[in-house]
Amino acid sequence: MIKVTCLGAAGSVTGSNYLIENSQGKKVLVDCGLFQGGKQIELRNWQDWGFNPTQIHTLFLTHAHIDHSGRIPKLVKDGFRGKIITSPPTAGLCQIMLLDSAHVQEMDAEWQTRKDKRKGKKEILPLYTTKDATQSLQYLSPTERDQIITVEPGIKARLRNAGHILGSSIVELWIEEANEEIKIVFSGDLGKQDQLIVKDPYKIFAADYLFIESTYGDRVHRPFEDSKKELLEAIQYALSHEEKVIIPAFALERTQEILYLLGEFYRDKILPNIPVYLDSPLAIQATEIFRKNKKYYDEQARAIVDQGFDPFDMPNLHFTPTTEESIAINEKPGSAIIIAASGMCTAGRIKHHLKHNLWRPGASIIIVGFQAQGTTGRKIVDGEKQVKIFREDVAVKAKVFTIGGFSAHADQKDLLEWVSHFTEPQPKAFVVHGEATASEALATVIREKFGMEVHVPKWKESLILKAREVVRKEVPTEVTPIEISQTMLNKVIDLEYEIERLKKRLKEKEEKATITYEDVSKLEYIQEELQGILPE
Ligand SMILES: [Zn+2]
What we know:
single chain, alpha/beta, seven-stranded mixed β-sheet, 17 helices, 22 strands, 36% helix
């Protein structure tokens, strides 16, 4: 019997964490992400793990996004000393992402402490520190994809390309269970077809159980070509007014996709040689890791490299890691493209650029990522006339372009296409990593389209996975005549016991009234059947 407990990203999109236990008590984890998106859900980061971290020897990490990796420093702090099996690019990206996350944790705790002090409350400690994050990095065990590895006796695994961000992986697990082998597939976050930079998700044909993400389980993205056109138009708008283009972007993948497209526009000579600033230390570091991992690029990106170009470069591209360099950008007149974090405009250098440009008619604000409720980015998207930046009211006079086609997630159509390959055998599916409506919508359409058994697990729900009929290997047994007669004798004894019980019930007064002619005829039927099948 195998038990899988959904300790994160079940009924929500963050905090990815699944505990898998076999009957020998061996435990492995898939992902260890941070819960994000508001105070209520973030409290879960502080709660008990639901397992003892010292007893876990293997964590499979699908990719470097913080909602999948962000609790690793806490896991190590709480006693984990095992291996974190992940692809080499993911290990590289984690080095910068986890340190950045620790820095955010420290800043948040410091801010909260300062606020609470005025109320006479105690100091707030961060979930983990930069030191914890640095220490956790030594457990990363970069493992190439497409090879089967044995991690524990009776537990094998293989990583496959998930096509979501650089290094992102699907996890295939084989767990031995009483002479059977059960295969469980965790999709991780899946990319869409023909996504930039990364190869399409690897097609898998067989599994007994499938855990599939459903971030966009109820939606279909707009065609990517439309988004590319919109991006160009948005840039041209600001250029025609000699104003700046501001792009709030997430450091990982989205930023590199934007650079990739700008590079393409430049090589195709549809973008003039204006300055492009990558104004985010984290995004700069991430881009360097992308450059070091060319072998993981898709065919198109490889072709650019083969022609002697860097897909993320153009002659007038400037990396501005220091604060002085960042401040200097806004002192330069004329057009420029500025890519800065944070993606939702809640923190970081983007706030300075918005303060300088949001009120300027003719400037372009290009929103290419998801904007959560309550964020400055969301207010801008929703068309508010002015927003607060650094306690100052800033008028929104720039033109706002919201471009929706840049998601690195498969949409419903992509997810169904990927699921359609599972035929030998068809797995039982568990739909996870989605808001309830998205997960339920995907579950319904998988059931209808493929006739699969599908379940949407809740947070903390444990699932018992057994060897399924379709893959059960017959154990050859030779049965002796003595064993047959022994089995027969046991059955007769059982029957005698049942008959005794029936006799007793009939003798009891209160039971008499409940016996009907139907029961009598059932007994007669059993008697006839027995006479028919018993050997002479
Ligand atoms: Zn992701």
